DNA sequence: ATGTAC
């Protein structure tokens, strides 16, 4: 399965530090451009074939890009960014978004520092351990009353959650798209996807998803950190999760529909996992409508988990949590960007890549206009997470990395360490752990991942973003 | 990532 690896490993040249180019050759329509250090690139060479494959998509403009955390994915590499020109027959591909549609990160800052939290950390972690649903399968902080309410969640995202009393208007200003993506079309969401989503609203899921209590360990840019609401020593809560079974089912359903449609439209791709359809054709519109519904479900999910964390912090410490930002790293969006000196309407796929708007961007709320968009990079359990900001002239349609990639399979990781042993190690390092399963915990051991700090350094070196702060965990809630 | 396969 996977890519047709007929060609040898793609040849690339180092164009400038942290920037490598794969020259176009048939059937590529554009070059490939990979942002990485030499070391990170060496680990990812196999995935360059996927960068090449993406470069063949109808309507692609600029280049087929990859971020420093590139690794093998379904069709597109994870860490891939590709934009297609909608008016020129550009396509949308579910593989360019991924199975976990709108997976992303939300960061909240407490009016409390680590010394203030220390005596209550155990109680806070116990509280979070009780109220944060996690692990595979059903369970969520919201009992959705029925199909009609699920439709409202799919249409309204975080905005709907706030309208129902779960958060305030300020939260929405600090969410990408104001908390809800326009154009959600619940009619394009199958019965099966709805069934899977009904019982999971407000849940973490499993794998690398988590809720962490963190502290700001290092600030690299005081002024920007202050604008984001962050200061050294401050306690934060980071939530990393997506659209659970609903997004997964939507991806499956629409990959199948597009696979069938491609033959009718005469579109050929080098890998069936790149199934796609023109944005303005029925299958393209249907996917984008369903994808937006899943995106909103994912944002409501994070809004509700944040509210649950707020209640626990309020009860155990009296502290309030204010939203720094909420941003997705698995999404396709319609955005305007210059192409050959002309502004064009593009479908920008970001899969394991984060939008990073620069200072002054009109879509940023007033209070972030001078600082740029907060970019939230979740680290591996027990290590650092990072806060970045967008920079002027950012390449790849203003995109940057999203996190650390795996270097060990789940199986390898579980063989390398037991869950109980790992928990003991983390606790002795000062990280409180509340996990759902020992096996799941072991699979997420830090040794199984690349160092996210290297990824962030390469992203900054490539001119994609700038570092603002580094966060370290005090406690982790895991699926 | 995912009721870790239809």
TrEMBL record:
Origin species: Streptomyces aidingensis
Cofactor: Mn(2+)
Keyword annotations: GTP-binding, Ligase, Manganese, Metal-binding, Nucleotide-binding, RNA repair
Name of the protein in question: tRNA-splicing ligase RtcB
Catalytic function, reaction form: a 3'-end 3'-phospho-ribonucleotide-RNA + a 5'-end dephospho-ribonucleoside-RNA + GTP = a ribonucleotidyl-ribonucleotide-RNA + GMP + diphosphate; a 3'-end 2',3'-cyclophospho-ribonucleotide-RNA + a 5'-end dephospho-ribonucleoside-RNA + GTP + H2O = a ribonucleotidyl-ribonucleotide-RNA + GMP + diphosphate + H(+)
Highest taxon above the source species: Bacteria
Alphabetized PROSITE patterns for the sequence: UPF0027
Gene: rtcB
UniProt-annotated binding residues for Mn(2+) 1: 100, 209
Matching Gene3D superfamilies: tRNA-splicing ligase RtcB
Protein family per UniProt: Belongs to the RtcB family.
Active site: 402 (gmp-histidine intermediate)
